[in-house]
């Protein structure tokens, strides 16, 4: 029976971003610029006021308060200057009663003339401040919604901001707004609109000589190529154009961002050596700059490149370097992530289960210390995934214990998706390694209930598959057939042809176990049709094996079985599958033996023996020697038969297989 496996979910993905270290020399976001407010010498009061008000939207909160204070102080100075001027004029006039009346009249006229202008200036200033505060809010609201993943709302605010910037002809702000609009469009899947906005922003940035704007557009266009168009090669071209600009700008943060993006894009393009070169540049610039957060990220990116290159020792070195920094800075969350990565590395590539267990245990301790239930569950999950390693260590009970702990946490936090995944893993552990099909059946039943509750058709289908396998292991073939038929019904709706193929095979084997060979043959043939349609030669090999066994054992048609085994052998040689080739030789020998073609049977068995001797399966070698001995005996060549029986007996004694020793001794006595 075959498992229908979900995709592996514990692959490490390169870090694409990390928060800036506030203690570094280059604080601030990676991909945005905060422009300073200029105060050009010799500018008129009105021009300066408008310039300052227009630039309020580009500042942070402290700068806005500072500028508003400056504007208020300027207004107060203007009023004070006016008052001093009036007092000075009064002092130059003769101080007598008659002139006093005239002076008062002039003062009244001047006040009446200046007061409306002064009031108008105040109103204009306040209006400008209010308007620019709204402009600032438009952009910041767009950015806030964007960061929260609310791209429709972000788009609305960015479009409002763009409308304002076009009205006041602020070209630099227009570029920022258009990039915001374009990024929102691309993440909404509207790539045509995004492309138009990016191109417009780029043209404006080039026309005005705005290098920062050009770089911002190149980065975002590269991201669209990589993430939406799945073309990392084209993304690399945009990132390289962005990288050429910092040499003129002297912007270390942007240069570092270019290294990050180029490393990630080359990694996705499977250019791992090139990706590693960019990762190393990213690491160097982070070390020189003293940015510990970025240095950790750079080490982790280098890890992924080294892992992809099949160099786990170097990957381990960079993990350890990242871990040292995380400990120095007291970053427990990063320590936890690195322990997870180290555990996976030792489990998957270095094949050191004891080391992986150690790192997962460290991760678990930190997760409990931080009160992080999700990471605690993940640690238990990883300790459970290491069940294969526990089997080698004879610690399957520990694997089961960690799975159970993970279930308890998932139930406690109400995470039904995780409960479902853990029941699947725990069921597989009981069925495949603890050989407890009844316990596995309980786990798969819980999984099915949750899948239906969450309306997860893919997991419901997988639960049917596993329940069928568990019932098959319990020899409850009628129940197994029902589960596999339900799996088959749902699988037909799936776009992946491999799903119904596996369901047909499992249904065929259930019918075979129920001694219903005609129905079994029908489902094997349906599976074969799909395998040939999709060009899946490995599946064709497996189905030819099943059809051959069915025709030989239940339909009693050895000639037909020989035909299928021959097809199996040809495909095994074509795809260079030594295991399947060896198996085909054995089956062909059995088919010829049933047809009493002992010479042909002997030839196939000898090829089978030659290939089996390169393996470590001693039981298989005993079987082949016995088959060859029986063929020689049928041909009347008793000396050769005795020799192979003796070889089989020697191996049985070497392995301590008492039952085999008794059987072979009887065969020798009958010669």
Q: What shape does the CA trace take? A: elongated
| Largest pleated sheet | none
N-C termini distance: 39 Å
- Radius of gyration, in Å, reads 38 Å
Number of distinct helices? 31
Helix-strand makeup class = mainly alpha
Topology:
Layout: H1 45-55, H2 61-92, H3 97-147, H4 151-168, H5 171-187, H6 191-207, H7 211-227, H8 232-244, H9 246-249, H10 252-268, H11 272-289, H12 292-308, H13 312-328, H14 332-348, H15 353-370, H16 373-385, H17 387-393, H18 396-413, H19 416-433, H20 437-454, H21 457-473, H22 477-491, H23 498-513, H24 517-534, H25 537-553, H26 558-574, H27 578-594, H28 598-612, H29 618-634, H30 638-655, H31 658-669
Name some characteristics of this structure.
mainly alpha, 671 residues, Serine Threonine Protein Phosphatase 5, Tetratricopeptide repeat
């Amino acid at each position: 029976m075959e498992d229908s496996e979900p995709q592996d979910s514990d692959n490490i993905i390169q870090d694409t971003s990390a928060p800036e270290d506030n203690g570094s020399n280059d604080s601030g976001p990676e991909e945005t610029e905060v422009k300073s407010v200029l105060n050009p010498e010799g500018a008129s009061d009105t021009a300066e006021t408008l310039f300052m008000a227009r630039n309020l939207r580009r500042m942070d909160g402290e700068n806005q308060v500072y500028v508003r204070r400056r504007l208020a102080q300027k207004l107060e100075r203007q009023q004070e200057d006016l008052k001093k001027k009036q007092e000075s004029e009064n002092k130059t006039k003769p101080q007598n009663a008659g002139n006093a009346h005239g002076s008062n009249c002039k003062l009244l006229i001047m006040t009446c003339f200046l007061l409306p202008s002064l009031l108008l200036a105040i109103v204009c200033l306040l209006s400008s401040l209010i308007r620019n505060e709204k402009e600032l809010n438009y952009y910041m609201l767009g950015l806030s919604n964007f960061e929260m993943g609310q791209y429709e709302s972000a788009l609305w605010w960015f479009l409002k901001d763009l409308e304002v910037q076009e009205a006041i002809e602020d070209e630099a702000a227009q570029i920022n707004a258009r990039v915001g609009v374009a990024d929102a469009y691309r993440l909404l899947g509207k790539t045509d609109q995004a492309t138009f906005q990016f191109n417009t922003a780029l043209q404006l940035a080039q026309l005005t000589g705005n290098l920062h704007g050009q770089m911002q557009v190149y980065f975002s266009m590269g991201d669209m190529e990589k993430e939406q168009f799945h073309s990392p090669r084209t993304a690399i071209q945009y990132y390289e154009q962005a990288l050429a600009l910092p040499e003129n700008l002297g912007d270390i943060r942007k240069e570092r961002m270019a290294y990050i993006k180029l490393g990630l894009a080359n990694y996705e393009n499977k250019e791992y050596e090139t990706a590693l070169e960019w990762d190393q540049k990213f690491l160097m610039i982070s070390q020189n700059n003293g940015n510990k957060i970025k240095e950790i990220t750079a080490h982790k990116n280098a890890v992924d490149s080294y892992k992809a290159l099949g160099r786990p020792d170097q990957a381990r070195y960079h993990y350890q370097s990242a871990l040292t920094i995380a400990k120095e800075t007291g970053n427990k969350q990063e320590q936890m992530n690195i322990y997870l990565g180290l555990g996976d590395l030792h489990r998957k590539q270095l094949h050191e289960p004891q080391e992986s267990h150690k790192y997962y245990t460290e991760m678990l301790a930190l997760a409990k210390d931080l009160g992080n239930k999700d990471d605690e569950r993940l640690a238990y999950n990883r300790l459970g995934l290491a069940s294969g390693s526990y089997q080698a260590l004879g610690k399957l009970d520990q694997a089961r214990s960690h799975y159970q702990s993970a279930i308890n946490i998932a139930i406690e936090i109400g995470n039904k998706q995780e409960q479902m995944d853990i029941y699947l893993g725990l069921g597989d552990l009981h069925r495949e390694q603890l050989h407890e099909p009844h316990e596995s059946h309980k786990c798969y039943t819980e999984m099915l209930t949750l899948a239906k509750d969450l309306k997860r058709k893919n997991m419901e289908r997988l639960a049917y598959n596993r329940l069928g396998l568990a019932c098959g292991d319990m020899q409850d073939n009628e129940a197994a057939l029902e589960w596999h038929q339900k799996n088959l019904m749902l699988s037909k709706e799936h776009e992946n042809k491999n799903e119904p193929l596996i369901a047909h095979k499992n249904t065929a084997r259930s019918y075979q176990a129920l001694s219903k060979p005609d129905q079994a043959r029908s489902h094997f043939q349906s599976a074969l049709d799909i395998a040939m349609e999709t060009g899946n030669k490995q599946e064709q090999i497996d189905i030819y094996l099943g059809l051959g066994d069915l025709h030989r054992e239940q339909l009693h048609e050895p000639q037909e079985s020989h035909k299928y085994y021959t097809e199996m052998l040809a495909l095994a040689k074509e795809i260079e599958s030594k295991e399947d080739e060896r198996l085909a030789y054995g089956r062909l020998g059995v088919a010829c033996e049933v047809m009493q073609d002992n010479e042909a049977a002997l030839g196939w068995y000898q090829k089978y023996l030659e290939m089996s001797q390169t393996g470590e399966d001693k039981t298989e070698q005993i079987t082949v020697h016995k088959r060859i001995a029986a063929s020689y005996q049928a041909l009347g060549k008793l000396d050769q038969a005795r020799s192979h029986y003796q070889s089989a007996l020697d191996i049985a004694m070497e392995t301590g297989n008492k039952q085999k020793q008794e059987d072979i001794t009887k065969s020798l006595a009958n010669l």
